[in-house]
């Protein structure tokens, strides 16, 4: 198979011919039809993720058809259209049995713990527990855009943040995660204020349903600006970027008893940000992490897509080839992408 491959962290990824994968007894092999390029892939390539063992094939946001099944797989067969959450649970640990495979103790993450989907084929373990049947109406490109950022935002806003209609949602950072959160918040009937430093991203945020936008470079104090716009602070606030400053702003712009959800990754130098804990206590704030979404929660998200309430395909920016993705991965730290880049041809 053709695949993107690297042997050293930070070294230019190349396109190579590698052996086709075979399924485990409980796993499948998927013929990849579309796969999203994500900042997590860049972090992995930089060596920020201890799960990655070299050499490596990245890629974790995918959709395709099943090309081979292991002997113990019951719910899926060759030819099925599927997608999979980027965190796959083992199905038998305490977390999986409580319905929380997104924090499984033995999680399988394509593109991190195992070789990923920047390839013609990818092997996925624990298929019965994790794969999601894809309705015919949802394209592979749209499904690939769900696997990580959109699904994670859905869980962050709906399940962790418990956002309700007419409440205020603040979203810090308007990349793939942030724009997803804005669309989901607006679909729930909430008011959304979006914060970023780039005017084109703020314009997209407004187009996707943000009630108000704040250019964080144009105000002296971001949290003060959000409290002003929202009439006292957001009920729910998401740090979609993952930076000590946006994390702190997201907590400080909450109203009393508000909920902060950290979705943007905090890695390397940013792993232990300063948290305004005095405010957390005095205002009884709630602080959550959000890490992917369980496959059984996809139903709720897919229903909102099929009914037209959510249109994740609007978040897709560039459609590129596997060959074009190699240099794109290496330059992701510059934040130039507007929307989600999808690899839709393995050439
Ligand atoms: Zn598990
Ligand atoms: Zn991702």
UniProtKB/TrEMBL annotation:
InterPro entries in alphabetical order: ADH-like_C, ADH-like_N, ADH_Zn_CS, ER, GroES-like_sf, NAD(P)-bd_dom_sf, Zn_alcohol_dh
Cofactor(s) required, per the database record: Zn(2+)
Keyword Metal-binding assigned: yes
Assigned EC number: 1.1.1.1
Pfam (any one): ADH_N
Keyword Ribosomal protein (UniProt): no
Keywords from the named record: Metal-binding, Oxidoreductase, Zinc
Domain Enoyl reductase (ER) residue range list: 10-343
GO function terms (MF aspect): alcohol dehydrogenase (NAD+) activity
Family named by the database record: Belongs to the zinc-containing alcohol dehydrogenase family.
Protein name per Swiss-Prot or TrEMBL: Alcohol dehydrogenase
Lineage: Bacteria, Pseudomonadati, Pseudomonadota, Alphaproteobacteria, Hyphomicrobiales
């Amino acid at each position: 198979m053709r695949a993107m491959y690297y042997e050293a962290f930070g070294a230019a990824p190349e396109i190579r011919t590698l052996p086709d994968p075979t399924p485990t007894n409980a796993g499948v092999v998927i013929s990849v039809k579309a796969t999203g390029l994500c900042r997590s892939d860049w972090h992995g390539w930089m060596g920020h993720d201890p799960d990655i063992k070299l050499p490596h094939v990245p890629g974790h946001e995918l959709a395709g058809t099943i090309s081979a099944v292991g002997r113990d797989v019951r719910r899926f067969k060759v030819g099925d259209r599927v997608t999979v959450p980027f965190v796959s649970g083992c199905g038998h640990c305490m977390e999986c049995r409580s319905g929380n495979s997104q924090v499984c103790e033995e999680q399988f993450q394509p593109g991190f713990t195992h070789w990923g989907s920047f390839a013609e084929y990818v092997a996925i373990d624990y298929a019965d527990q994790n794969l999601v049947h894809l309705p015919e109406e949802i394209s592979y490109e749209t499904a690939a855009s769900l696997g990580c950022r959109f699904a994670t935002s859905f869980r962050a806003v709906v399940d962790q943040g418990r956002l309700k209609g007419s409440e205020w949602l603040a979203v810090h950072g308007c990349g793939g995660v942030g724009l997803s959160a804005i669309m989901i918040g607006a679909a729930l009937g909430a008011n959304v204020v979006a914060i970023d430093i780039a005017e084109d991203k703020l314009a997209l945020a407004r187009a996707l349903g943000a009630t108000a936008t704040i250019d964080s470079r144009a105000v002296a104090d971001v949290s003060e600006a959000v409290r002003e716009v929202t009439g006292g602070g957001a009920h729910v606030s998401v740090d979609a970027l993952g930076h000590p400053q946006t994390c702190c702003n997201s907590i400080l712009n909450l109203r009393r008893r508000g909920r902060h959800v950290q979705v943007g990754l905090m890695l390397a130098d940013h792993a232990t940000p300063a948290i305004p804990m005095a405010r957390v206590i005095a205002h009884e704030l709630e602080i959550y992490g959000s890490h992917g979404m369980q496959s059984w929660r996809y139903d709720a998200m897919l229903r909102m897509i099929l009914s037209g309430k959510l249109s994740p395909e609007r978040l897709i920016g560039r459609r590129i080839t596997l060959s074009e993705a190699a240099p794109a991965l290496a330059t992701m730290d510059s934040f130039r992408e507007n929307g989600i880049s999808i690899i839709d041809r393995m050439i």
